[in-house]
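Teaching note: in complex prediction, the entire set of molecules is handled at once rather than each chain in isolation. The prompt given to students was simply: 'Predict the structure of this complex.' The entities are:
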Amino acid sequence: MECAEAREHLADLNRGQLGADLTEAVRGHAAQCPACQAGLEADAEIRTLVRAQVPRYTVPPALRASIQAVIETAAARPSPAWRRWLRLHPWPAGALAGAVCLLLLVWGGYRWMAKDPVSVLAAQAVAEHAEYIKEVRTRPAADPVAVVKGLRSQVDFPFEPIFQGDPQVQLVAGMVGELSGRRAATFIYKDRAGRYTTLFLMPGAGIVVPEGDRMLIETFRPHYRTASGRSLILWKHRDLAWLLVSDLDKSEVPAMYLKVRKAA
Amino acid sequence: MDHAQNSVPAEALKHLDALYNLARWLTHDPAEAEDLVQETYLRALRGAHLFQPGTNLRAWLFQILRNTFFTLYKRKRREPEALDPEVLDGLVPIGGATGVGGRLADMRDATAGLDLTAALNRLPEEYRSVVLLADLEDFSMREIAWIMDCPVGTVKSRLFRARAILKGLLRDYRQ
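The expected output is the structure of the full assembly:
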């Protein structure tokens, strides 16, 4: 046993509030350690001294009378009816409170979604991005040409040339995903610092790119936001919606966007 | 039957002496101690419905008293002479002094109470309160942790350090 641990138990030991095993361990340590033995003795002696010598202040009679009067008044006053009911019916009260909270949550959720229709898509994309990263980390990088070719045959919408990597960023995997019920071609890129970016490509019908939070990148103005610490860029090109989810921050992600955007 | 709420007023008066005692140690002023105790009882009675029957009413009242003190009074203003524990750690060799038992035994005379009171008053509040709650009020480490809203390990370590500091201060008073 170390000194720090022994010292934590000295007060309990002197009060007889320590189990047999710990008592033996602390006493064993103190027997070998003069500092802890002195601490053990000081604990008992100062406790005795405090109890014997420290004066106790006496409550002034006026204060006692005043507190007594306050207490008697409080004891005589019945508690409000609603509080009595809550105390007697804790389960219905809890259920009622739970139902109200649930309704507020649902109502708030609808209002939030109505105000921000991309939020659900963004949240799902970030979650998928995190899952893909876990998966591709353990795999060897695939051939970029084969990745693009394979995905073209697996999704039911045509897409234009896709950025297949450069000396800074590598296209390491591709897979078919699903976002908000849409089948999406998904491309996972990794930069030299080991940071990942996922491109989701899906039919654009029904996806509205919000007018707010546009980022000016050269001549383009895609929608930009962050979610769960990831950067997201959403835009539409031809009939497709393009969504980038990236570990890169706001200052770095525009360069990645341009690579993808200009390849198309 | 609203037993839970009514049990608080009925039981609370039993703890008045102990609460007033700690209030005096916290405020160092009889009038402010009275105000603090009155406010503590008012808050306890207002919040009586929050008290869980069967739990520790005494510890609950002490917790209210201490929280009320920190809400109503400027802590720093009340601690002008308290020693900095970091400084004290450097000055007091924890457990390193010899002959402690004999020296402490010698202290048990008519002036010891005065010396001890002065030494206690020089402790920082969080150390002094731990000593008073543990030694005068016999609260367990767990109860003190709850009253002071800190981990049990912190209470134990504060108590150990407070003992060492007191030991050093008492030695100084005797010299």
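Point out the following to students. Chain A touches chain B through 46 residues (CB under 8 Å). The longest strand of chain A covers residues 169-179.
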